[in-house]
Amino acid sequence: MTTSAPEPIRPIVWRDNRLWLLDQRQLPEHEIYLDYDDPEVVAAAIRDMVVRGAPAIGVTAAYATVLAARRRYAADPERWRCGFENDLATLVAARPTAINLHWAIERMRGIATGAADPEPVLLKEARAIEDEDVTANRAMGRLGADLLDNGAVLTHCNAGALATAGFGTALGVIRQGYADGRIDHVFADETRPWMQGARLTAWELAHDGIPTTLLCEGAAAALLREGHVKWVIVGADRVAANGDVANKIGTYGLAVLARHHGVRFMVVAPTSTIDRAATDGTQIPIEQRPAAEVLGCAGQRIAAPGVEAWNPVFDVTPADLVDALVTERGVVISPSCEGIEALFGS
Ligand code: MRU
Q1: Which residues, at least 6 apart from 212, have a Cβ–Cβ distance to it below 8 Å?
Q2: Chain region(s) in the chain for CATH 1.20.120.420
Q3: From 133, 189, 237, 323, active-site residue
Q4: Residue 126 Cα, ligand 1 centroid: separation in angstroms?
């Protein structure tokens, strides 16, 4: 009997001159694409988590700049740039921690400069950003999988196809590692409060037929003490020049636990996630989201009345807790300023 490979998951689609986003808030129950032709509505979709994950929001923003150029140029072919800049500012403010959003918009702005008719050249660039992301993920999958020992891995949040243009960063390594026979089981943190692990990572791995067990974040220490997990593998929203890593809240705690239990800790992120201007993690802005996300679950209030909530959605893992940073340009073991600069050839 032959089984065909599962269809690749595509969270972002450009079709019929519009942007289509798989509404990740509705997964795994409903697979619904929403379509967009207004960049301000795309910015709201990024803020409201229709699409999330650092590379995915970068690719989304790249296509949103095409929509911005189209409407501003149609309104005034002579003076479209001022309104275009306002749209870019709205997009970049949608989520502050993921540097890919900023990176993609800067790259698109550079292409728009000097373009007489901006839409065609911007569309070509947005497609290139999307394609490069998938290519980078495949390369990182190979490089990261080569580091693995046989056994289980633990991942946090969703750094999969849904968080990128396709294949995933941490889940790219996991997909490749499973195909190579180096991973026998995946453990996934449920990832409060948005449940990216329970809803998205579990859905992706089930889609690919990779055996997965879900756990509450609070169970991670007990799991790592059992000894079967060899690597913790996560993505990143921003990596500072010294290797400090901002990623989903709870990542730092996992890194501390991994070091305590002799489990290795891998961060998988394309070079577009590295912010060379941030000398260390203290310079990375951490997004705070509404308290209601912690006070409830799936739209249902669960906390006792009168209590407040603290909801930073990312934390910073110090570089010295990271054993390997996997990028598409190579692996940095025990990341440092020098190792990261070497990726950029300087
Ligand atoms: O709040 P989210 O769901 O956008 O957070 C996503 C993460 O923290 C991911 O780990 C990170 O963006 C890397 S995605 C390849």
Answers
A1: 185, 186, 187, 188, 201, 202, 205, 206
A2: 12-135
A3: 237
A4: 20
DSSP 254-309: HHHHHHHHT-EEEEE--GGGEETT--SGGGS---B--THHHHEETTEE-SPTT---
Q: Which residues line ligand 1 (CB under 6 A)?
A: 52-55, 98, 157, 159, 163-164, 169, 196, 235-237, 247-248, 313
Average pLDDT by stretches of 10, the chain with 346 residues: 71 97 97 98 98 98 98 95 97 97 97 91 98 98 96 98 98 98 98 97 97 97 97 98 98 98 98 98 98 93 96 98 98 98 89
**237 in catalytic set:** yes
Give the domain 142-343 fold: Rossmann fold (3.40.50)
Task: For residue 161, give the nearest of 27, 16, 314, 336 by alpha carbon.
Answer: 27
CATH class of 12-135: mainly alpha
Which residues in the chain are classed under CATH 3.40.50.10470?
142-343
Among 200, 248, 286, say which to mutate for ligand 1: greatest number of ligand atoms within 8 Å of CB. Answer: 248
- CA of 64 from ligand 1 middle (Å) equals 20
Helix (H, G, I), strand (E, B) or coil at 8: coil
The secondary structure of residue 77, as a DSSP letter, is S
- Of ligand 1's atoms, which has the minimum distance to the CA of residue 160? 15
Strand partners, 185: 152
3-state secondary structure of 131: helix
Phi first, then psi, for residue 230 (nearest 5°) are -100, -30
